[in-house]
Amino acid sequence: MSDIAVISGSSNAPLSYLLSRQLKVDLTPAEIRKFPDNEKYVRIDGDVSNKNVVILQSMAFRPDEYLIESLLLASAAKDAGAKSVTLAAAYFPYARQDERFKPGEPVSVSVVAQLLTAAGVDNLVTVDVHRHRVLDFASIFKGKWIDVSVMPYLVSYGKKSGLIDNDTFIVGPDSEAIQWAKIAAESAGLSNYGALRKKRFGDTEVTVSGELNLEGKKVFIVDDIISTGSTIIEASKAIKEMGGKLVGVACAHGLFVNEALYKLYREGISEVYSSDTVPNQTTRVSSAEALSKGVLEILK
Fold it and tell me: Domain span at residue 108?
């Protein structure tokens, strides 16, 4: 679509470029810098009048900064006459706080959705967004929303690299991850998938159990996010207790904080990879094609 203008936020320029290639347009340049007091300055250095502007941003690790940047870019695009503004949020911020767990807390994901609308974002494309309780973002975001998945790409890579075959059992490490296990398995034509059960005691302390029939089976774990690695480590122990053999782990968003990758390797989980929504040393597949399909669908 020649009326699309892709603008890269400062969080993930390589993915922005790949997205523009998928959409067959050149990147629209934008100046993004900081004032001496660290406030953000943005300026769209191209004609976006009457165009469908797509802002690519991946808001991991510095969510406050990248969110403000996205809001400013969206407002600037609207002020410059954009027909519509779509935020392609490869990693969507504040989705973990999707419920008021204690009195006095905000529902952060709803606040972010309101900010996006106020800044002029008409459409939202996310990638395997962390939605454990808010399953439908349309309930909190006033514009059009599509969540695309990189699970088919992760599984395809796993098959090509020999980690996954037709008898592999795809497992989500907790009940919420059954949605990703289902997408991953069905995309690869696999019939065996399921999920374990997780009990959380804090930000990093969890226990995982399950009653799946994994005796003698090869098992592959998929999840949306690997952060500290605690859930995956406990899931691997549960799989072993059920008689399964863990052959690999893949996630959409590889954060790997607090030496998580080292801890996974130390546990014997040597095959770990992710997508480029959060670029890291385990990145093996790109989310660009999935994002471009979501953008084209939402702009129909």
Answer: 4-148+286-298
pLDDT digits (tens, 9 = 90+) for 124-153: 999 999 866 555 677 888 899 999 999 999
Active site residue 198: yes
The residue with tokens 């403000």 is 68
Whether residue 70 contacts residue 59, with contact meaning beta carbons closer than 8 Å, is answered with yes
User: Which one of the listed residues 198, 199, 217, 237 is annotated catalytic?
Assistant: 198
Same domain (yes/no): 268, 164? yes
Distance CA 283, CA 70 (A): 24
pLDDT tens profile 22-54: 999 999 999 999 999 999 999 999 999 999 999
Burial 46-68 (b: 16+ CB within 10 A, else e): eebeebbbbbbbbbbeebebbbe
Q: Is residue 281 part of a domain?
A: no
Residues 272 and 236 in one domain: yes
Distance CA 114, CA 92 (A): 14
Mark whether 133 and 190 lie in a shared domain. no
Same domain (yes/no): 50, 144: yes
Q: What is the value of pTM for the model shown?
A: 0.92
Q: How many domains does the chain have?
A: 2
